[in-house]
Design goal:
The structure holds 3 protein chains of 3 kinds.
Chain A lengths: L5 H21 L3 H26 L3 H31 L13
Chain B lengths: L1 H19 L4 H25 L14 E8 L4 E7 L1 H20 L8 H20 L3 H10 L1 H11 L9 H34 L6 H5 L5 H18 L8 H8 L2 H26 L1 H27 L4 H22 L2 H32 L17 H12 L6 H14 L3 H26 L14 H19 L2 H20 L9
Antiparallel strand pairs in B: 1-2
Chain C lengths: L15 H17 L7 H29 L2 E7 L9 E6 L1 H24 L6 H20 L3 H19 L6 H32 L4 H11 L5 H17 L7 H5 L5 H10 L4 H8 L1 H6 L1 H23 L4 H21 L3 H28 L17 H14 L7 H15 L3 H26 L6 H4 L7 H14 L1 H5 L20 H25 L3 H4 L3 H11 L4 H20 L3 H21 L6 H25 L1
Antiparallel strand pairs in C: 1-2
Amino acid sequence: MNGVPMEHGLVLAAVLFALGLGGLMFRRNMIFVLMSLEVMLNAAGLAFIVAGTGWQQPEGQAMFLLVITLAAAEASVGLALLIQLYHRFRTLNLDVASRMRG
Amino acid sequence: MILVWLIVIPFVGGLLCWQAERLGGRATRLIALATMLCELLIAFGLWLQLDFALPASGGTQWAVEYRVPWIERFGIDFHLALDGLSLILIALTGFLGVLAVLCSWREIVRRIGFFHLNLLWILGGVVGVFLAMDLFLFFFFWELMLVPMYFLIALWGHSGSKGSTRIGAAIKFFIYTQASGLLMLVAILGLVFAHHGNTGEYSFSYAVLKETTLSPTLAFWLMLGFFVAFAVKLPVIPLHGWLPNAHAQAPTAGSVDLAGILLKTAAYGMLRFALPLFPEASQAFAPFAMALGLVGIFYGAVLACGQQDIKRFVAYTSIAHMGFVLIGIYAGTELALQGVVVLMVAHAFSAAGLFILSGQLYERLHTRQINEMGGLWGRLGSMPGIYLFLIAASLGMPTTANFVGEFMVLFGTFAIAPWVVALASVGLVLAAVYSLMLMQRVHYGPPQSDTPLKGLDTREFCMLLGLVALILWVGLYPQPLLDTSSAAMQDIHRLFDAQSSPLPEAR
Amino acid sequence: MMEHATTLSIAQPTTLLPLTFLLPLVGTLILAFSRGQLSYRASATVGTASIGLAALTTAALALGFAAAGPQQLTLWTWIAVGDFTPGISLALDGLSLTMLGVITGVGFFIHLFAAWYMRGEDGITRFYTYMNLFVFSMVLLVLGDNLLLLFLGWEGVGLCSYLLIGYYYTHSANGWAGFKAFVITRIGDVFLALGMFLLFTRLGTLNIAEILELAPQAWQAGDTTVELAAFLLLGGAMGKSAQLPLHTWLADAMAGPTPVSALIHAATMVTAGVYLIARMHGIFELAPTALYVTGVIGALTLLMAGFAALAQTDIKRVLAYSTMSQIGYMFLALGVGAYDTAIFHLMTHAFFKALLFLSAGAVIISCHHEQDMRRLGGLWRKLPLPYAGFMVGGAALAALPLISAGFYSKDEILWQALAADQQGLLIAGLVGALLTSLYTLRLIIGTFHGTAKSDNARHAETGRGLAHGLPLVVLAGLSTFVGAWITPPLAEVLPAGPGDATHVGHSSLELLAAATALGGMALGVWLFGLRRGWLRLANRGPGAGLWHLWHHAWGFDLVFDWTLVRPYRLTVWLLKSDLFDGLFRLLARLVRLLHLGLSRTQSGRVRGYAITMVAGVALILLSLALVIQGT
């Protein structure tokens, strides 16, 4: 367990997060956006685990459980939205759904 | 406890009306009418029962008082109190409430229950304003009466000409009054904190805050906060923008209430709060206030001449009349202050009458544009005669209440500020100009058609005749009114007298 | 000095006094609430009877007055706040009794005549309602013992005047004429109101008797304040009495029915200004400048109106300008301090001018509403009674010596002016007398002599009936020397004029005045009757210019139009869009502009929001890092 230094784990989490963020910002397809969100959530979870292990604290794992539940909830809402999006616009392109523009 | 009833009755009546819509429109209207009559009767009973002469020294200034703690942590009480001034205005509220219900008998056909709910809640809020002696409670009622008024204009209003919509008018009304109300809240809080700073205790009580000592600068700014809040409602130029739209777009009942009572809450607020809480600052401010009153008289008169919509016309004349009220309030002599009371009552009657007549004209002609009228004298039965009377009242013809009010204000102010009076008197000429111009353009000239229109039915005739009788009564024998308010007005007058520094104009 | 009389005697029940105004009020109310149910005859009967009964009451009061003297009656206190306690209280003295007699007496005959004049008109009930209301207000005006009650009547008569001028409401012009009359007199009323404010503030009372008593104690003669007060009262009087420069409304006021012109715009309301000044003489005695100005205004008005009357073609307008001119005489008399003479002339003028107007009304109705002299003429055979009325009334107007009432009163005015050593005013009065003779002759000759110049005149119908004949006969009687026998009981109320003590040179002035009047008449007959070539003068060169100028009464209307009406209209037009409110509308527009700018950032695209958010977070982190590094 202590073979991997905490920094490596955190860097991995940061990289994953950055990838997710990039996907979120630059993909138009909603499925990819949702996937990116999952990646970001899991990156945050990974950071919690790594930090919890590194400092020998249980809160890290508790937080990860929370993140998992959140991610599940988010995925279900997101997928529901995705179906609605496709239903309304016949496309998964997010930029089409911009009716809330000012 | 009777004071609580005065407030509760309209609110409960409103809820009953709302539910009674299921029983049909007639039941709703009857309930509303009964509620307002009840209110009026209670006020009248109080008037007969109580003695409003100046209380003995050491006694309280109130004839009836009701007080229970509300939010003790901040020193907020549910404190109601009644003196002659509030009683007159409450009776007026009851009377105009009855008129408002009666004049919407035919006009309102959609959502009758909700309409009467709003109407009665406005009146309830107004009664609360007239009774509240705790600044927090006062603010509460002050804001409370705005919301139903907003709905009244927005839901049952008429859209006027050239793009001015009822929604726009309602929003304008709400923004103006809400913003000014917030300014007042700031001033109230400032006053409370200043008092806290002096004594270490929180209190919103009128009697306590009246004794607060303030630095002149702070007093001036706080006074200004109150003044602006009331000035929007009165209205004082240049804060009058909401009034013509709101009046023109509101249903008749709304206009009657607006002109008759809501404007009076502002004058009441000045008399009850702005002056007694900040006597020195108010006195220093008096010349400006009187100048603003003068501007209002002229501006309202000139703009009234340029209107095409009869309801907008009456709205602008209200601005001119309220100019006299403002001058009278800040003149501060007993005669002027008593004149203000009479003028408030008189204007409530005459403006309400003119709005009711405008509504009835609209019901018959389906237009409010003056240039589509003309020559109506022979076509409307006895309505033009009453119109003429109300026009005469609005231009201050002797024997009408308006004359008594205006002339008492002018007599009372002359000793303090002769030049203001000299200029305000020019407003009397302008009043003749705009009033008779309306008469000329609506009723004289060649008729547009020869077919007679429907004359007044019994309900309309009784309403208007009642108004005419009251205007004449106050015009010829205002003494009961004056006796009722004399103690309250003398109190305010003493505040002005106590100030040693005379006004710049004083001679 | 008038004493504050409170004596009441049993011989003179006080209950009679309120009847003088209650009867017209009852008439008004009956008519107003009849809601069109009354027949023509019933309306006329109610309207006339109420005034007739009031006239009888006045007669009874006059009898009682002879026995018991002045009386005072408080009905109730109108307003009581501190010192301010004007009451609904009446005072009857010689002056108000005289006025009362004129109002109800002449008023009754005019009401009676109106029953003939108005037959066949719509809305007779409305007519009599206004007329009775007018008499009610006018009675209150003269009976009020304080200025505020006087002001009540003062405004009331103004309103009735407005309503009656605009009686034929279907013509806009009539309404606007009433509008003009009301607004211009209201300008005067504002001066009166300011005078009241000033007097009350300084003397602490509005009771006229008390004011007259306190004023000499409070002020020296010529004190600025009292001069100001007198000028303000004068302003009120000028508006109501159509004196220069507030006179322009009276000629237009002729749009009303002719009995209205007779009652309101000749006999009673327009003379209210004279009454006011006579009533407040104590103030004017203390204000020599204001008094002098009163006389000068009177003199100027009588000349201005005299010339204007020469160039009118409408017979009613001739009479209107002659009314202004005659009131100018009254002001002249007031200006030299001869208050009783002014009231005397007021009374005789009421008789003969009412007669002239009623005769004119008879002509107008007989000739099918034709009132232009250029289309009348040759009527003296067909309309003998109006002709006689015009002859008697015209004689009184032109002050035909010895046999006319006008001679006695006008001669008295000229004598007072001479006795007061006011040569300028005297000369103006004499020139005015010449002008009066001229335009009177022109009026009579143009209307009744020569040939009929239109079909309306050729087919004139002779008026019949008691309502037509009786008023003319009675008023004609009063316009002769008979009327001059009536001596108003003014000695107790008004101070003696300057010419009351001596009469040195009075007879020579009388001769001069008589010669002027007769000379004027002779000239008039020569000019308008025999040598009609004179009239051609008016058509060319300077003659036409003068004619034009006088026809438009020296162009005062134009001046007011350019100095007051047009600037006011311009102001209304400029402010029409509510300038101050525009300020706030500007604010609203600014907010909207901001909104337009910022709403661009709300693209509605989720990715855009995400990018912005990330950029924002990055920016915050970066700046935080920089800050931390900086420390």
